[in-house]
Specification:
With 386 residues, the chain is an alpha/beta fold. The protein is 59% helix and 13% strand. Helix 12 packs parallel to helix 13. The longest helix is centred in the C-terminal third of the chain and has 25 residues. It is elongated and about 85 Å long. The mean pLDDT is 87.
């Protein structure tokens, strides 16, 4: 998810850059002024509260503003990200935005500070006033607006500078040059962040073989709980013996075994550009754990894939696999196969439903050749910056 706060004094070109970023990265535009006018026009409860305050000459409180923004974020949670224009205006609002982003399982990616000298802002707005007919485009009003902007905004800019996510852009340049500067910032920030993919699918859907191939293709680290558990079994450890017994009954391996292995894998993977997770998370509890583990690395889930294959085909595939050296312990009988499929239905399907509320879950038809399924998934995974 790409979340950008766009700052700049009147006349800096925020409108032009907003249009560019929204179109380029399919972002949801969030402007407190626009959202407030929308609520007022709709006559919503929040809009009516705001109307009473405005009518009495007061300023709309943060309590109302945050509810309006939270509503918009929730309604667009499956999108590719948000562009915040004119928000946060105060450090208190900056803390509020942090809380909202955490609730969504993400964070503000960076802030773009469009910088222009005061005389340039005044000149641009006065020239605009000659054709716009706006009464506030006169020098006295403009300078008052600029003074207010700098007084209120400087603490917010410092807040994000301290976090290392504030980027300055010379907005006196041409529109094309400013676009280029902004693009460079986006690309650089995306390179810093881990790109993480979760692949879901019933046993036999091909998620393992696809996951390995995709990890190699995109230069990502392949994290498969099955492989790690098998390594424990092969090593003959006490943990491995516990895992083997669970496999024989077709039961899921408990979190106290799986989670430390995942955490260790993430911690030891230095210099990687991201991960492909197969077989984790399998439960709702594990889904919260994964979000927390990724947040430790200032990362989140980038793509969620679900490979769909009909049940009878899954049973046929698993039965065939049981006759090969790729046989899993739960492939050894039809009863165990069915039990494992039921485990996925009851425990993993709710995870996918939960993720569909926070991330877009891309469903892929697994009933095709390996190469065709691979290409479908690759087209979805393809990160914005390679």
């Amino acid at each position: 998810m790409l979340n950008i706060a766009l700052f700049g004094p009147p006349g800096a070109g925020k409108g032009t850059q907003s249009e560019f970023l929204i179109k380029k990265y399919n972002l949801t535009y969030i402007s407190t002024g626009d959202l407030l006018r929308k609520e007022l026009a709709a006559g919503s409860p929040l809009g009516e509260q705001a109307r009473e305050i405005i009518a009495s000459g007061g300023l709309v409180s943060d309590e109302i503003i945050v509810q309006i923004i939270e509503k918009t974020i929730a309604e667009n949670a499956q999108g590719d990200g948000f562009l915040f224009d004119g928000f946060p205006r105060t450090t208190i609002q900056a803390y509020i935005l942090e809380g909202l982003m955490i609730k969504l399982g993400t964070s503000l990616t960076f802030l773009i500070d469009l910088q222009v000298p005061e005389n340039v802002s005044v000149e641009r707005l006065v020239n605009r006033g000659k054709t716009s007919g706006r009464s506030d485009d006169n020098e006295t009003v403009i300078r008052n607006r600029l003074k207010e902007y700098h007084e209120k905004t400087l603490p917010v800019l410092q807040f994000y500078k301290d976090k290392g996510v504030r980027h300055k852009v010379d907005a006196t340049a041409s529109i094309e040059e400013v676009n280029r500067q902004v693009l460079d910032i986006v690309k650089e920030e995306q390179r810093k962040r881990l790109f993480n993919v979760v692949i879901f699918g019933y046993p036999g859907s091909g998620r393992g073989s696809q996951g390995k191939a995709l990890a190699e293709h995109f230069g990502l680290e392949y994290v498969a709980t099955g492989r790690m558990l098998e390594e424990e079994i092969a090593a003959g450890t006490e943990t491995g013996k516990r895992i083997e017994k669970l496999y024989e009954t077709g039961e899921l391996v408990p979190d106290e075994i799986v989670v430390p292995l995942i955490e260790k894998r993430l911690a030891n993977a230095k210099g990687v550009r991201g991960f492909i997770f197969k077989g984790f998370p399998r439960t709702l509890v594990q889904s919260y754990i994964l979000e927390g583990l990724l947040r430790k690395h200032d990362a989140t889930i980038s793509r969620v894939i679900e490979i769909e294959v009909p049940t009878l085909e899954l049973i046929r595939r698993l039965d065939e696999r049981s006759k090969t050296d790729r046989c899993m312990p739960y492939d050894s009988s039809t009863a165990k196969i069915v039990k494992r499929l039921q485990e996925h239905e009851t425990k993993t399907k709710p995870v996918i439903e939960k993720f569909s509320q926070l991330h877009e879950v891309h469903k892929v038809d697994g009933m095709d050749t390996f190469d065709n399924v691979f290409q479908r998934i690759a087209d979805i995974i393809e990160p914005p910056v390679m």
